[in-house]
Write a structure and sequence with these properties.
Blueprint (H helix, E strand, L loop, with lengths): L9 H16 L2 H11 L3 H7 L3 H12 L2 H11 L3 H11 L7
Helix pairs in contact: 1-4, 1-6, 4-6
């Protein structure tokens, strides 16, 4: 299955996913809430921070909280709907072949 050329490539998605993780990590309360809701421990998060599964969890966390999503999108300079597209690609929905 070929990747849809209208979607961002995997590298762009990973970059935005890591920016979202940095956004959460920059605020102790935000990060604590993410860790509590996902069950991921701090050590596990550090070890797997660049993994697609972790980045998908980060983006899903943002997508579940509209106010947090809007703050991140504004800081990152992207449209909020871009986060859902990036999450889709990172989850393998775009066919990475």
């Amino acid at each position: 299955m070929k990747r849809d050329p209208r979607l961002p490539d995997l590298e762009q998605c990973e970059t935005l996913g890591l920016a979202a993780l940095r956004f959460l990590a920059a605020d102790g309360a935000r990060l604590g809430r993410f860790l509590a809701e996902t069950g991921i421990g701090p050590a596990e998060l550090r070890a797997a921070a660049g993994d697609a599964e972790v980045l998908v969890a980060v983006l899903e966390h943002l997508l579940a909280d509209e106010s947090l999503l809007l703050v991140f999108a504004a800081e990152a300079g992207v449209r909020p709907e871009r986060i859902a597209i990036v999450r889709y690609v990172l989850a393998g929905g775009a066919g990475q072949n």
